[in-house]
Design a protein that fits this description.
With 574 residues, the protein is α/β, with parallel strands linked by helices. It contains 14 helices and 29 strands. Among the domains are: 56 residues, Immunoglobulins (Immunoglobulin-like, Sandwich); 63 residues, Sandwich (Immunoglobulin-like), CATH 2.60.40. Helix content is 25%, strand content 23%. It catalyses: hydrolysis of (1->4)-alpha-D-glucosidic linkage in 4-alpha-D-[(1->4)-alpha-D-glucanosyl]n trehalose to yield trehalose and (1->4)-alpha-D-glucan.
């Protein structure tokens, strides 16, 4: 049996012992708080750590695998050397691409990496460039969104574990698809979080999801290393082409070198080593362009960021919803301003926040492709009280308008699984906490949160009810039916049009917009192309003419204007 060096950072306990297959071994502590022991162990040995006089065997904070869940022993695992077939994959940046966000557990009926592989040819035919998987790190229970992960290095076993993830990414690369992994470094979940027993992983602060991660207080150096090594692991060991970083505004870093800047530098270094581009896409609600400004220009060096302002501007203009954080949006003026400048709030007053918010984006130096445009995300659906999609409330014409505005814009585009065919499935918040008290608190907290906002508590689905998870799965048998199939074909054509040079132009200074607030028409010009939309129900004449390239509805093109029916859109070559 080969020797293996086990190591764990645990400055908090006075004694740490190593358990390998039920046998305890002493460990030696170094001055930096790391404990080590060299022990004979099989390549797939089960192991864990015993701290002080607590007899429970705890999993490794850097566990490579958790075959029996986050409360049990870890397992040694290394990716087989001959498992990859993507040696010819040269990768690509996400800038200007079309990204497809999906949740492994609800993307297919089986909810596994292997069943997702069966749908990759569909995604290739649709024309997307990247698959973005919602978190696949190990979390408590069998199913959930994944944002309550507690062992960030391990892959959720019900999805297929680390070997299944390798098969999925390898299959994506063989088809020319890049892969982004959603990584959560701003908090830890409530079920199976043993990290605070090892050391100061948590800070004295908090965020909406619990205690904050310690990235700037005493002992933070090793916690930062824990985060950075995890980020690099997804890209190095699993060949991911980048990460989507969850809610980076919750990473409170008061040090001189922000952890995101550090992550950006180390990611670029790894990209040079691997010989292919790697991308970091941040979710942030700060509207701070420094996030996507290169490091040599004083920024943090993120490749791109989610842009909720674009979502809000499109969704409210089309749907008419104005509640909550939508309150400042809804007009065509707001839509035009957001599409022209990237951010709506750019040092301006936000009525939702009751303060000034954001900072202007320098559109002459920062291309639009560093911002992501989308009509919905897992957040914008799942964080609604009943998880309803726009397809459950809007006409197909309104959905087509939203798609044309997002995909026809200069921004990097993102879809959420099933949006392209107006999936009838909701995407609700679901969890499967094994602890009864936690399960009850999650369900009650969800109901109270939305009841406080005026929803009937009886309408809010119980996240712990397995039916909530099941009803959130996509219904693939409706993909080609009627308007579902028509809309999918429309999306496919829109995505293909993005290859036209005028529509691939990343500079906002080349974008021209006209609109009529009362008549409810909106016109977006990009080079020789014009995207004309009628957001109202009555026919309107839009001051543009040309050859129709793609349409939803039946436009009547005259010599000076184009008449559009209610809730319709056409793409013209002018």
């Amino acid at each position: 049996m080969p020797e293996h060096e086990f190591a764990v950072w645990a400055p908090k306990p006075d004694v740490v012992r190593l358990d390998v297959e039920g046998t305890l071994h002493p460990m030696e502590r170094a001055e930096d708080g790391w404990w080590r022991a060299v022990v004979d162990a099989s390549p797939d040995a089960r192991y864990g750590f015993v701290l002080d006089d607590n007899p429970k065997v705890l999993p490794d904070p850097r566990s490579p695998r958790q075959p029996e869940g986050v409360h049990e022993r870890s397992q040694l695992w290394q990716p087989p050397a001959d498992v990859w077939s993507d040696a010819d994959w040269k990768g690509r940046s996400i800038e200007g691409a079309v990204i497809y966000e999906l949740h492994i557990g609800t993307f297919t009926p089986d909810g596994t990496f292997d069943s997702a592989i069966d749908k990759l040819d569909y995604l290739v035919d649709l024309g997307v460039d990247f698959v973005e998987v919602m978190p696949v790190n190990a979390f408590g229970g069998t199913h959930g969104w994944g944002y309550d992960g507690v062992l960030w290095y391990a892959v959720h076993e019900p999805y297929g574990g680390p070997d299944g993830l390798i098969r999925l990414i390898d299959a994506c690369h063989r088809r020319g698809l890049g892969v982004l992994i959603d990584a959560v470094f701003n908090h830890l979940g409530p079920s199976g979080n043993y990290l605070p027993e090892f050391g100061p992983y948590l800070s004295s602060g908090s965020n909406p999801w619990g205690e904050s991660i310690n990235i700037a207080d005493a002992g933070a150096d090793q916690v930062r290393r824990y985060i950075l090594d995890c980020a690099l692991r997804w890209m190095r060991d699993f060949h991911a082409d980048g990460l989507r970083l969850d809610a980076v505004h919750a990473l409170v870093d008061t040090t001189a070198i922000h952890i995101l800047e550090e992550m950006s530098a180390e990611t670029d270094s790894l990209a040079g080593e691997l010989g292919r581009p790697l991308s970091l896409v941040a979710e942030s609600d700060l509207n701070d362009p420094r996030l996507i400004t290169p490091r040599d220009q004083g920024g943090l060096g993120m490749t791109a960021q989610w842009d909720d302002d674009i979502h809000h501007a499109i969704h409210t203009a089309v749907s008419g919803e104005r509640q909550g954080y939508y309150s400042d949006f809804g007009t065509l003026e707001a839509l035009a301003q957001t599409l022209r400048h990237g951010y709506f709030h750019a040092g301006t007053f936000s009525s939702f926040r009751q303060r000034r918010h954001g900072r202007p984006l320098d559109t002459a130096t920062i291309p639009a492709t560093r911002l992501l445009a989308y009509t919905l995300t897992h957040d914008q659906v799942g964080n609604r009280a009943i998880g309803d999609r726009p397809s459950q409330n809007l006409t197909t014409g309104q959905l087509a308008i939203k798609a044309a505005l997002a995909l026809g814009s200069p921004y990097t585009a993102m879809l959420f699984m099933g949006e392209e065919w107006a999936s009838s499935s909701p995407f609700q918040f679901f969890s499967s906490h094994p602890e009864p008290d936690l399960a009850r608190a999650t369900a009650e907290g969800r109901k109270k949160e939305f009841a406080d906002h005026g929803w009937d508590a009886d309408e809010i689905p119980d996240p712990q009810d397995p039916a909530t998870f099941e009803r959130s799965k996509l219904k693939w048998d409706e993909v080609d039916e009627g308007d579902h199939g028509r809309l999918r074909a429309f999306y496919r054509s829109l995505i293909a049009l993005r290859n036209e040079p005028d529509l691939a132009d990343p500079w906002l200074d080349h974008l021209h917009i006209d609109y009529d607030e009362d008549a409810r028409w909106f016109l977006m010009r990009r080079g020789a192309f014009a995207i004309a939309c009628n957001l109202g129900e009555k026919d309107v004449d839009v001051p543009v003419t040309g050859q129709s390239v793609l349409t939803w509805g039946e436009p009547h093109i005259g010599t000076e204007t184009t008449r559009l029916g209610g809730h319709s859109v056409t793409v013209l070559r002018t």
